[in-house]
Amino acid sequence: MKTVLYNGEYDTDHQERMRAVATQNEVARGWLTRFGVIWLGQAASLIGSALAHFALVWWVTETTGSATALATASLVAMLPGILLGPFAGALVDRWNRRVVMVVADGVIALASAWLAWLLSRGIMDMWHVYVALMVRSLAGSFHMPAMQASTALMVPKAHLTRVSGLNQAIRGAVDLAAPPLGALLLSLMPLHNIMLVDVGTAALAILPLLVMAVPQPERTAVERDTNPARALWRDVRFGLAYVMAWRALAALILLATCLNLLFSPAFALLPLLVTQHLGGGPPELAAIQSAFGAGVIVGGLLLGAWGGFRKRLRTVLVGVVGTGLGGMTLAAMPPSLLAVGLGGMLVAGVMNSMCNGAIQALMQERVDPAIQGRVLTVMGSLARAMSPIGLAIVGPVADLVGVRTVMLAGTGGAALLGLSAFGWRVLRGLETEPGAHMPVPLSEGATIPEPQGAAPGCVGAGRRAML
Q1: Ramachandran region of residue 8, left (φ > 0), alpha (ψ -120 to 50) or beta?
Q2: Is residue 109 within 8 Å of 198, Cβ to Cβ?
Q3: For residue 3, which phi and psi values (nearest 5 degrees)?
Q4: Residue partners of 274: CB distance under 8 A and separation at least 6
Q5: What CA–CA distance (Å, rounded) separates 253 from 236?
Q6: Which of 46, 109, 186, 445 is deepest in the core (most CB within 10 A)?
Q7: What is the 3-state secondary structure (H, E, C) of 330-352?
Q8: Is the dihedral of CA 308, 312, 313, 316 positive or negative?
Q9: Cβ–Cβ under 8 Å, residues 46 and 212
Q10: Per the domain annotation, does 75 fall within a domain?
Q11: What would the pLDDT profile of 207-261 be if each residue is shown by its tens digit?
Q12: Concatenated DSSP letters of 261-299
């Protein structure tokens, strides 16, 4: 195979391999310091965002008491990532990823500062929350693929699974600590001060990015197209063609789409499950979310130390089933058995962490870092495509039949779907099909080869979201 270089000349396979080895050697030298400083800043930002999210969700619950309002808030926070994710990923692959992360963190901080100002004036309304959630989601649509793709270049391949497990663990630590801390802060200070905490932690994420180098992937001559609109559309089509040509990946996305249709509405209504079924308030909601967070920590650490089953797909599917059963346990318990429900959420957190960590490591290993931005965002957009429909429906339905019924149906259905996926033979190609490594973006009008073992033209039949 020959690869186009910056100057349009051709390189041999031997030279390409030598360049790849040199790149990996460079990554291996001092990677822990560079990556660790950036990672710690991002972890601080996650804590601030989680505190702000908890406080805002409780404000919506207390102000409206409506399942429809909560579902709408989740919906507007989800739509930018679904609709614009593939374009954001294509742009991330073209832009400087460090700049993308700095700007994204800055926009999120500005949205929180705006809400803090509205709250301090006593003029915040629901539409202000919706706008802020949408802006934060849009910025996150750029930040997430930039950070994931940069991780694949900063961390040696041998450590990607462990880093993925560590990422799940820190998200679990945030889920564990943020709810009780958020409940405590709500009792100690006004909501606008909590939003300012988010602004401060965003600054902690930006500062390391201003001084630390973030590697950029090599760019082909084709990617340096002088027509930005044509180049962007070609990159988006490449991401779509990539995931659809890889039959096993298309099947995984279909599974994730169905799971998110069930999971997203169920977990979006947790605050109302607390108030309407459990008769609780912020402490009970904090306990449930912290139990899930503790499970995510355990799952992330377990995945980092153990690495999961030898076949990573088994780790993914066991995680799906366990997440569904854990959430179902919480919904099934009466208020007097809340402790059992908390145990179910602990199990759900462990299983969700292992599932998402295994998927992330698998994709970072098998997808070329130069195209991870567009491929991962296309995956995420397609996987969450049905979630807005579920959220649009679940609000009015929950107001009629009850939040508990909706959560039982969603989590139970997800567990059954995960069990059935063990029989999907096509999914095994995630680890066996050699076509996982497809060429980087081609010239206009060129075709993208099918992965070996896929039928020509074959198209296979989210924080708690799958993928």
Answers
A1: left
A2: yes
A3: -125, 135
A4: 280, 281, 284, 285, 288
A5: 17
A6: 109
A7: HHHCCHHHHHHHHHHHHHHHHHH
A8: positive
A9: no
A10: yes
A11: 888 887 777 766 554 445 556 667 777 777 887 888 888 888 888 889 988 988 8
A12: HHHHHHHHTHHHIIIIIS---HHHHHHHHHHHHHHHHHH
Q: How far apart are CA 382 and CA 418, in angstroms?
A: 18
- In angstroms, the Cα distances linking 280 to 59, 284, 286 are 15, 6, 10
pLDDT of the residue at 214:
75
The amino acid at residue 13 is: D
- Looking at the structure of the chain, the number of domains it has is 1
Residue 426, CA distances (Å) to 142, 252, 434 in order: 31, 9, 14
In whole angstroms, give the CA distance from residue 243 to residue 377.
11
In sequence order, the 6+-apart residues with CB closer than 8 A to the CB of 77 are 133, 134, 136, 137
Which residues of the chain fall below pLDDT 70?
1-30, 158, 160-161, 168, 172, 175, 217-229, 373, 433-467
CA torsion sign for 349, 304, 416, 384 is: positive
Cα→Cα distances 398→259, 276, 347, 391, Å: 19, 11, 25, 10
Q: Domain containing 315: what range?
A: 31-214+235-436
Residue 113 token pair: 């500062």
* Helix or strand run (H / E) with residue 11: strand 10-11
Structure-block tokens of residue 380: 């995420």
Provide the token pair at 30: 């001092």
| Chain segment 289-313, per-residue pLDDT in tens | 888 888 888 887 888 778 778 888 8
Residue 40 resides in a domain: yes
DSSP symbol at 241: H
User: 373 and 145 in contact (C-beta within 8 Å)?
Assistant: yes
Using alpha carbons, list the distances in angstroms from residue 411 to 159, 287, 331, 333.
33, 19, 9, 14
Diameter over CA atoms, the chain: 72
**Residue 207 near residue 53 (C-beta atoms within 8 A):** no
CATH of the domain at 375: 1.20.1250.20
Is 24 part of a structural domain of the chain?
Answer: no
What's the pLDDT tens digit per position in 98-152? 888 889 889 989 999 999 999 888 888 888 988 998 898 888 888 877 887 777 7
